[in-house]
Each structure stands twice: as C-alpha cells, then as structure tokens.
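Inputs:
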Amino acid sequence: MGLLEVEDIHVSYGNVRALKGISLAVNEGEIATLIGGNGAGKTTTLKTISGLLRPAQGLVRLGGERIDQVPPHKIVRMGISHCPEGRKVFHRMTVLENLEIGAFGRKNGATTREDIARVFDLFARLKDRQAQLAGTLSGGEQQMLAIGRALMAQPKVLLLDEPSMGLAPLMVETIFAIIRDINAQGTTILLVEQNALMALSVAHRGFVLQTGEIVLHDTADKLQTNETVRKAYLGEE
Amino acid sequence: MSSVHKGAFDSVRDWSHRLAPPWISQVLGRHKRLTLATLFLLALLLPLRADSYQVHILGYIGLFAMMGVGLNVVVGFAGLLDLGYVAFFAIGAYTYALLASPQFGLHIPFWFVIPVAVAIAALAGVLLGIPVLRMRGDYLAIVTLGFGEIIRLVLNNLDPVTRGPQGLSSIDRPSIPLISFTLDTPIHFYYLILIACVLSMFIAGRLENSRVGRAWVAMREDEDAAAAMGVDLIKYKLLAFAIGASFAGFGGVIFAARQGSIFPADFTLMVSINVLALVIIGGMGSIPGVVVGAIILVGLPEVLRDIQQFRMLVFGALLVAMMIFRPEGFISAARQRSEVQRIRELGSVKTTS
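Outputs:
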C-alpha cells in the first residue's frame, strides 16, 4: 500500500474528459514520476491530488485517508505540497516572503526559521537574494524558490509539476540534483515531467500517461529501456 | 531598459518623481512614528484655524478617508475590485437612521448602534461575497456595481421603511452619556471622525502586516498558487469583503448622525467611484496614500468651487495623468520597504552547513 494512492479518477473540463480513470500509487520515500506528452493529463492529475480540481469519480488517499473531497488548504496541512507548473512564485513578494507564505498552512510557526535555513542550504542562491522581489529572479531561481516554498509546508509528499520547463540544460541538471537531495532527506516525491529521460534518471518508478490513461508503469530502470517509451518519449527511432 | 530611447512622457515622469515621490515614502518609512505624530497633531489643530464650512469639508474628507481605508482592504490588499462599496456606507447610515429617529420612534444611543451597524454591514459584505466567490476582475466589478445599485434602489422604493426619496430626517445627534454632552457642531463631528479614522487606519495597518494580510497578498498575486500554499480562498475573500464593508458601515453611522437627514440620493454609484479613485490616486494598498487621495479628491473640488462645472473633467484628467505618470499612486504601498527593514532586523538567517 502506497503513501499516496490514486484510484480510478475521472476528471473533466466541461465536456472534455482529461482523465479517464487513472490509478497510481506512490510509496513512502520514493520518487515516482508521471511522464507523457502535452495534454496527456499530467498537470490535471497533480491538481486533483492537491484538491485544486475535484474528480467526478474515483478517490485519492493519503496514508489510507481519503482526501478527494477535502479542500486544498486542508490537504496542504495533511502533508501534500504542490509546486505548480510554471512556478507561480508571488512576483511582488520578496524571496523571504514567498518562503514564509509557504509555511502558511502550518500551525507551528516557530520552526519556520529553521525551515528557511534548510531551504537556503539547498538553494544557496536564494539566500543571497532573500530581499529581492521574486519577479526579478531568473527562471531557474524562480523554480528553486517555487520548490523551496513548497518545502516550507513540511510535506510528506511533494508534487512537482514540470520543474525543468523553460530552463537551460545546466540549470535542469542542478534542479534535478536538488530533487534527489530532497528525496534523500526523506520527502516522498511525485514528479511530473515532459523531459522523460531526466525524470526517469532520478525516479524509482514511473507511470506513462497518454490522453488521460496510464498506459505503462514499471520501475524507472525498466522504463528507460522499454522500447515503446524510448520511441515515444526519449526521441529514439 | 534604461538604454531604450526616452519617450515624451519619460522626462515628465522623472520630474513628477522628483516632485512627489520616492522621498516622501522614504521619510514616511524612516521616521514613521514622528511623521504620524506630526500629521495627527496637524489634523488635531487644523479646525481651530478653519471656519465652520471648512471644518465640515474636513469632516467629509475624513469620512472618505475612512471609506478609502476600508475599500483599500478589499481592492488594495485582497485585489477584489468592488464597485458597489457605497452600499455598505448606505447600510450603516440607514441602520442608524432607522434606529435613532422619529421614523419608528426608536432612539437607540449612537454608541450602541455602532457595533450593530458594523455587524450588519459586515454581514452584507459576506452576503455579497458568497455569490461572487468564483469571479475575478471585470466580472466581479460588474456584479458589485449591480449590488450597490440594488441597495440604493431598495432604499428608494421601500417607502414604508425608508420613506423612499424623501429620506429620513431628524436623526438623533450622538451624546456622551456621563457628561450629557451632545455632538452637534461640525467641529464635534470632525473630532469624532478623526478618532474613527485613526482607529480604522490602525486596524487596517495591523491587518496588513498580519497573517491575514499575507494571505490576501498571496491571493491577489495568484489564487491557485495561494490555495496550493494552504490559503483558504473562501475564508479570506469573505473576510476581506466583511472587513471592508464594516469600515464603510461605521462611516455611514457617523455620516447619518452628522447630516441629521439622509436620502437614497446620497448613496449613488458616484460615491463608490470616488472612493475607488482616491484609493488609486493615493496609492493602491497604501494607507497614507488613502489620506492623500481623500484630500485631493474631496478637498480639491471644494477649493476649486469656482470651476465646479469642470470638476468631472479635472477628475478624469487627474486619473489619466496618474495612470501615465505615477501608476503606483502618490504614496506607493509600504510593503517592500518594510520588508527590507525586517530582513535587516532579522539579521541574515543562519544556515546550518
């Protein structure tokens, strides 16, 4: 039984069926990745888990407890933190304020400073820029901030939506190394990526999503050598 | 960006910055207590040098500043564009007028009506808030505008209760019980309004730097991201509407007591627009800005009474000019400055490695 379980969820935007009954489970301590092309339903899946969208059918469980009807702010408190697609840092707030708001859902404000220190350990560049407005950061720094902000909620499960989007290859390397570190420190991660090669290189297990359905799931190593995956997502003939 | 060629507006914009600008904010930031004390003292002494009519206008400026502070919570802090704000002012005013006039023969003391009217206005704010929870920007503006008009039309047509366009008159003057002192001159009301203003600003200032204020700013920046951070959007939106409305309700009670008689025509869309304009001109999200905005928008037309018929033209021109030259308003919001200060106080956060 996984820490985070998604069972047969269906989600629609009006008449468009985005998810047609997908199921997946993320085990405690692992990095699981959800890969697939544009419009496959990756972001929709994450938004449904974090409560920003409601499934028409199916259920989501965290540690055995159903959360599919729980409002998003309570889900954060229960231990799921969502780092959204396109980073969405608060542009007119400083780096430090962004991090502080990340701890908003928590009751114990006393440990906020320690957590800020922890984020600065992971992302030294943010420390130098703590008084700077988030909107003035580079794309990579904003991604770091978005991840750091999500960590401030002290999540059991961290949902990462396309952390590599729009970043230079070197920055992508940096971000993924940090994702591995965060996982090594004990946070379970569900990673959504278009960059399948990169995602499978850090993940333990992977799910392949295609037009709203999971078509494959296996360990990351096996998916990396799977012929279908290699053809469809890793750009090999 | 600075290497781009300078447009015609740029030189004027530079000039306007030298005229008003960053330094006012800086002085306000650095010597905040001193500045506030000086301004308060000035406000305290001002009526002594003014005639009764001028004091009346000063009171009017104060009432608008109070409404501005309330609307600033909704629009400036929480980013919810509300064009029906006058409705809450009307609700406050009519609550007092109905509870303290010959209309129903009720003469409930002013001081008891204040909490009642504030609560009713806040409740009205929540009632407006619920249907518009999922709306943003233009749509929100249109619905709130409609709400403002509905309240005014109800007041205008509910004859048995409000006496319609004839309005309510002989509204009780507030009195202070123990010393049996009745407030009835413009100067008395000026000081009452001044106290109410200071109280409103104090509350708004505290809210701005609180947990609630943070949630509002996050919500204003990006609703989805705020929700993902654990901000309960429903709660904080309704809270913004309720708090904003309660300030206007409070102002409405004082307005009714001061005027002695009120009419639905006192609560037109124009009042909402004026309050919004003074918030924008003063500096969205900035409390001192609201005061400056109120002085300019309410005070200036009085000074320019001779050209009364051009008033709207001047308003329009002023708004357009502000949008071009100082889009952040006369006194921009203090958030960034205080943040830099706070970091200095905090010292650099120590890292463990």
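Remarks. Chain A has a mean pLDDT of 90. The radius of gyration of chain A is 17 Å.
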